[in-house]
Prior knowledge:
heterodimer; A: about 250 residues; alpha/beta; Nucleotidyltransferase, domain 5; 2 domains; five-stranded mixed beta sheet; 9 helices; 10 strands; B: about 425 residues; Rossmann fold; four-stranded parallel beta sheet; binds iron/sulfur cluster
Amino acid sequence: MHIGIDLGSRTLKAVVWQDGAIIRHQVTESSFDPHHQALAFLEQHPTARVVATGYGRHLLQQHAELDVITEIKAHALGARQLFPNCRTILDVGGQDSKVILLDERGRVTSFQMNDKCAAGTGRFLEMMAVSLGYDLEAFGRAAAETEVGAPINSMCAVFAESEVVSLKNQGIPPATIARSVHLAVAGRLAAMVAKSGYGDHLVFSGGVANNATLVALLEKELRVPILVPTIPSIVGALGAALHGSRSLIQE
Amino acid sequence: MSEAFQVKSDPELWEKLGMDVARFSGMPGMLTTAYTNVFLSQKNRPAAMAYFDGMVENIHTGRIHEIMAVKESGKPVIGTFCVYVPEELIVAAGGVCVGLCGGAQGSIADAEKILPRNICPMVKSAFGFKVGKICPYFQAVDLVYGETTCDAKKKTWELLDRYVPTHVMEIPQMKRERDKKLWVEEVKDFKVAVDKISGTETSFDDIAAAIKTINAKRASLQRLNSLRHHNPSPISGKDMLLIEQIAFYDEPVRFAEKVHELCDELEKRIADGISVAPVSTPRILVSGTPMALPNWKLHNIIETSGAVVVNEESCIGTRYYKDLIDEGSTTVDQQLERLTERYMKIDCSCFTPNDERIDQVIKEYEESGAQGIIDYCLQFCHTYNIEAIKLSEACKQRGIPFMAIESDYSPDDVGQLQTRVEAFIEQITG
Ligand code: SF4
Ligand code: SF4
């Protein structure tokens, strides 16, 4: 039995892998005492071999017997398991976004991570949703209701928020503004993918991939099929679990 | 058992230098802690590193006393910010050349009270040291000699001149015959400015001796760097970087001697199979912008992530010591011309075109037995940042793993850098 833990900055993801299948998974908010939550999960499977990834991987290592790998490698392994021909991965999580390129055997050849700012991350979408009074799901749906969008010029989360406020004050309907925010984020992510280069399809992972409107807009921008895992946020945790199972075989 | 490492204090000396003593008195303690964590925690360091540890302990005291003694004897003490300013001519006049580039986060806030925020942290840190009166070297110099390499520096000199006499050497942006003519003239002006402080004109013999001294210093670093390339590494990248940093403030003859002593020890280590990391440790070459003392951020991240840095293609690194000056001149004019020719070989990204640097990085990559290149760019350094594109293309063509990093001195991005460096190491090891 193998456990993969992905301790992100905002959510904790865990996958239990046994006999070639995911037998259990869990996604929880990690804002409150994430280590405690992770350790509680591990206690339920005392004999499992554990690999941790994500922002909190090293900290967790101080509290439990486990190996660590980076999010980059974890996503590469996870995405390849779900989509064996995958060569490009876009992962957009709460706090950062990354593009990972793989060779034909699935090894990482290069990767790119966004800079220090929140733009093009889950956090940015969340902030914009809140300032328009939507919850996350409704935000995505609203953006799909209309074809028109007003331009949002600033991709700095702070400035974009004030742009959104001023659009609201001009009486622009919230759905139009929601559309605009989605267009801006899709544009930003597409530019990041285009800079890295991509093949004939793209795997999109991370919680933000649950947003179908964004996926559709991105597909339109990049003009290749975008494949989204059934549960996009656990790809990293899956990869970590797989790493454990494979390195065991090598030993 | 030697006494515990401690960066020394000398408030009386600092007072005399006109420093902000109250504020500076916290500095030795902070540096002691940082140095202990970053350097002394390393396993299996060469014994000859003790001298360089001592240079850090005495950085604000012993070495300053030595420099002040030179100054009080009427010899020039000159601060510089760039490896294009020829230290040989200062040494020829019996003086001291100190590199004043700043590598500390602590002085940035001082600088940002005056300078724009979006410029290179090295320039801000240095400027902040002066305006905050928190660097004994800055206080000790007669004058500083800046240059016209990048925009951040050349415009900052105009402001720095308000706090300390600041001369500027015009460094051309291209390397054609007519640029060389200008350059030689600038070198001659520099000699005049240096000689003016001591009141005597340096002679052919003085210059010949100084060229020998600095050649010997650079040659000692060349020897050290080539020993360091051995796999398994006989010395860590952090220790090597530290020595390259100390080269900018130590007395050159003694420094070269101590570097050779270390080299002798490393030769013995190699023969005995003693190393700081096993053969299988991933080997990284760092290229790019300089890392001024006490900037150990990237090296520390790399070496605590299980890799070893095997080369610095940097001004605080090979760009400083890869070339020597021809010693066969028979006239002063010829000396200055040979000197200028040597300086023209430095391949800084401030020049255009600068393709020889790309070739140089690849050459060092091969010589050092590295397995990947991390290109380090200080935030807002446009020339290195843009040049990274060509470097990345050259690496791609040759299948060399490459990653470009842009960072400043703040601790904010350490977590993210760590992830990127670890992922890069995973990429190398497969
Ligand atoms: S990077 Fe260029 S400008 Fe800076 S010290 Fe080196 S040679 Fe001078
Ligand atoms: S690193 Fe770049 S921006 Fe900074 S001083 Fe050197 S050349 Fe100028």
